[in-house]
Amino acid sequence: MKVREIVNNLSCKVLAGHNGLDREVKGVYINDLLSWVMSHGNSNNIWITVQTHPNVIAVASLLDFSCVIIPENSDIEEVTLKKADDEGIPILQTELSGYELCSVLNELGV
């Protein structure tokens, strides 16, 4: 599945990283502790987090995540969006909670 399909199925807002919407999605990781994510996340994962500072994009890039989804319509720092555009990592925003996101993504077969 591609990030673009996730966007369409979840009606997410794409806030940055539009040129990465054709990235492949192979799984989901949800956690907010950056060091934990760095040691447990896998490439081609969707990362669900409420963290919105630029280090999120550094970690997502390091691990080759497919995209970052910010739940509950949390605000995102402008510098983070700029960094996501520079790295080609989509940042998606949704009103769904982390639990709701995982439930829907599971139903989609991710």
TrEMBL record:
InterPro entries reported for this sequence: DRTGG, Ser_kin/Pase_Hpr-like_N_sf
Domain DRTGG: 5-107
Official protein name in the record: DRTGG domain protein
Organism: Clostridium tepidiprofundi DSM 19306
